[in-house]
Each structure stands twice: as structure tokens, then as C-alpha cells.
Amino acid sequence: MNPMKHNVDYSLYLVTDRDIMSTSTIEEAVEQAIKGGVTLVQLREKRASSLEFYETALRVKQITDSYNVPLIINDRVDIALAADAAGVHVGQRDLPAARVREIIGPDKILGVSASCFEEAVQAEKDGADYLGVGAMFPTGTKTDADITTMDELRRIRGAVSIPIVVIGGINKNTLPLFAGTGIDGIAVVSAIISAADVQEAARELKTLLQQVR
Fold this sequence. Notes:
- The chain is α/β, with parallel strands linked by helices.
- The chain is 37% helix and 16% strand.
- It has one domain (3-212): TIM Barrel (Alpha-Beta Barrel).
- Helix 1 (26-35) links the parallel strand 1 (12-15) and strand 2 (40-43).
- The two termini are 29 Å apart.
- 46% of the residues are buried.
- The mean pLDDT is 95.
């Protein structure tokens, strides 16, 4: 087994979005965010061609590798394998998690999105290493997302043993609401990537997260 896989710090999980980033490049955003305390990076490219996505992944991976931060690729199992990323994150409308696990093997990280109890339990059964639970709050970056209640989050936490990262409208105002829920981390898009000072925004969330957990 890959020892790195079991020592992943899920606490501050950055999801990229080039449409709303304050920096001129993804690489700059990622490096600043890591300097501010981001522990895991998911590269999300909704409109890039396969070649663009692959080339971006290679460039971003040079940065994440240099800071020893795992790089997760959103949706695209082929890109994750081609770029030798640490893992892949799939949603409920992507390739089935159990099939993804077969393709990527035991050593890569597999994250699965779950918005309800049933999806979460199934994802763990299918071999997920962590869950992305949400959307917890309405968010501009994912307008079609189902909202997950705090009660549902607690039900999920009681039923699964793998790490839970919450996503969807997480920022310094909503973060304190997760006190006592037993989450392992927060996934953040706009609260970091859109900030004028990416590093400072990450640092602020990291400090707040330590108080909440």
C-alpha cells in the first residue's frame, strides 16, 4: 500500500476555477494557496481540451510536488493517470467509483462527491478514500448542486469511517457552523481563489479551521 495515501491532510482542500481566480495563472494561485496553508489541491478544468488539461496538470504538479502536496484531478481518470497525479475525484454523474478504483489501482487517492447518506455509504463501499460532502450552502460555482443539511452531514459522519471534506459555499462566515460535526476538512473554491490576496485568504481559513476542529 502507498503510505502517503494514508497520511493525507484533508484539512484545507483547494479546488481550482480559472473563471474566478484573481491571479493571472492557475500555477500562481496554487502556489500562493499552498504557501497560505492549503494541504490538498484539486485541479478542475471544465472547458479545457484534453491536451490543455494534461499540460496544465503537469505544470501544477511540479508546484504541488515541490511542496509535497497531493494533486487530485477532477473527473478525468485518464488525465490523472497520464499526469501521474496523486488521485482523482469523481461526482455522481462521472464514471462509477467502483470502476474508477479498478482503473486507478489501490495506491491512488479516490475522492467521491456525495450529497446524501445513501451516496456516501455507497462511495465508501466502492473504495473511496474520502468523501466530498455537499453542497453545504448555495454557491455560485456550482448552481445545480443539491444542498446537504447539517443533519444529513452528521448522519453521514456516523455511518462512514473515511475522511469527510465539506464543500459548497464554505468561507470564513460559514466555517464556524461546522464545529462539532467531525469533518476532516473543508473544500474551498471562491473563498481562496477569488481573493485579492490568495495566500492571506488561505491562512485566515486555516487558522479559523483549527479553532473549529
